[in-house]
């Protein structure tokens, strides 16, 4: 039978690149800031879709009786789909407006003029060390990394232990596989809705809070209704499990934040790398038990950091508490980040105060595709 950890792997194998830095950078090169949230949500929603597909495949494969282990059949099917998707991406994905072979020169210019107001430029093949340095010295970047870590610790636990938690609520192992499907549906709803709302309101932070709070409520319900592995209300606990699928949209919004709030091609690449490292570290901490079970002996020194401990089965009370604590802290950090971006916008307005409208327009046009960082461009507008 496929384990909950195996269902997690489907997201890595089938469409694992859906949240990588290259796609975020591509979105930033093609779309206006007020369009980027929706576009990022359209590829990130594949994580939720693969949760549904993974649950269905795992449920079907678990009933097979053959010489091949069900886990191997699972990986062969998903691996083949991944390879096919990779070939399609290689053949049809356009990496930048400038290198789009199917576009005429006039169409390339039209695309560039369309995103001129972003003040974030487009692809640049020159690696700029000063931009990399700025990425590491920009405090906002590390605040976002903290946000990603706080959101990824619960993700590591819930993704790896969701099926196990369902069994502690009174469901069988096979039932837990199929019951993961509604959680994916909830994820789809929140990812697409948050992408649309964040563009419509031009506000990533408020929408992020809307995505985080339902998961906090769900985790609190799990603590109150199943404190020690003895469920008090089975339907309510199942509903709480479904609610936990909402917070994944917050990471999607952090990707959209990066797309909208960082300028300079080398800086963008560096910032996205930092964000994804933070994401991986958070998942490692949150799902440490699963990694140890796979023989990652080198990580035993981090055992104290694991949130879902075998010694606390079947209640896993510390894991549930960590979800509430991390996501509650994330809410405060997100609000702080919102005020920080507003402050930077006001500072840029003050810098422009002594310039005439003609001077502003000339400099704005010059800076639009100069591949300057957001901190070097007074016309850059931060999205909170």
Which helices and strands, and how do they pair?
Elements: H1 4-13, H2 21-30, H3 33-44, H4 46-61, H5 70-92, H6 105-114, H7 129-137, H8 139-168, H9 173-178, H10 180-201, H11 204-225, H12 234-243, H13 248-261, H14 265-286, H15 288-293, H16 317-352, H17 357-367
Largest sheet geometry: none
Q: Compute the separation of the termini in Å.
A: 45 Å
Could you estimate the helical fraction of the residues in percent? Answer: over 70%
Overall tally of domains: 1
Rg for CA atoms: 22 Å
A few lines on this structure:
The chain has a single domain (4-110, 130-376), classed as Up-down Bundle (Growth Hormone, Chain: A), CATH 1.20.1250.20.
Describe this structure in words.
The protein has helices spanning 4-13, 21-30, 33-44, 46-61, 70-92, 105-114, 129-137, 139-168, 173-178, 180-201, 204-225, 234-243, 248-261, 265-286, 288-293, 317-352, 357-367. It is mainly alpha-helical. The protein has one domain: Growth Hormone, Chain: A, CATH 1.20.1250.
Descriptors:
single chain; 384 residues; disordered N terminus; 0% strand; mainly alpha; globular; Growth Hormone, Chain: A; 17 helices
